[in-house]
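in:
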């Protein structure tokens, strides 16, 4: 499995931790994917559409031999399987799986943009990503993840609170409760 990718997960409907856990499990059980690391889980204030429940957010890294478009198909089928309904733009969702990075590729297609076009401005993405990839260099931004996170305002960072510290346990603390 020669490709690597970082995926952001978010949930703000129902049993949010259940949906995160099931999202990870679905990816892990895919024969062409190996989940390699999980960040901690953060509770985050909604960004964009603010009149909705708070989110649980986290990120994971994986290795795979599928293409970026195949990975998008897989993540979308996991979202569907986990009751995701697409109605309101940026509205509440049981599970959202965004492909943040795929190797060091720069992809601009109608259905897929990599790096994810809003990752650099989102504390709810960069904070968990720093758990597992702080020193990872992204050519597109000519910066490491840590450097991307540094200019985020205090207000953005204030909306992001550690909810479950799984990282110190190799990430898989999420499966222990
Ligand atoms: N890197 C990416 N990861 C996931 N979806 C992407 C990506 N780039 C483009 N898309 C497209 O974005 C479309 C909308 O995705 P989705 O409904 O999950 O957006 P969102 O999570 O509400 O908003 P945002 O993209 O700001 O996180 C998808 O159908 C997909 O084709
Ligand atoms: N805190 C938070 N806010 C959001 C999120 C999210 O995952 N977490 N996702 C969005 C659309 O993808 C819009 N706003």
């Amino acid at each position: 499995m020669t490709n690597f990718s970082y995926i952001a997960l978010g949930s703000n409907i129902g049993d949010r931790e259940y949906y995160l856990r099931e999202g990870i499990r679905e990816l892990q059980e895919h024969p062409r994917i190996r989940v390699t690391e999980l960040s901690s889980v953060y509770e985050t204030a909604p960004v964009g559409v603010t009149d909705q429940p708070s989110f649980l957010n986290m990120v994971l890294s994986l290795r795979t031999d599928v293409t970026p478009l195949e990975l998008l198909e897989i993540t979308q089928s996991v979202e569907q399987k986990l009751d995701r309904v697409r109605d309101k733009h940026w509205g509440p969702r049981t599970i959202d799986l965004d492909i943040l990075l795929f190797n060091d590729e720069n992809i601009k297609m109608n259905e897929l943009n990599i790096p994810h076009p809003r990752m650099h401005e989102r504390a709810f993405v960069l904070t968990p990503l720093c758990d597992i990839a702080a020193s990872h260099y992204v050519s597109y931004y000519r910066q490491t993840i840590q450097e991307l996170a540094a200019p985020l305002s205090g207000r953005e960072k204030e909306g992001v609170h550690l909810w479950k510290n799984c990282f110190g346990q190799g990430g898989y603390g999420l499966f222990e409760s």
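note: The mean pLDDT is 91.
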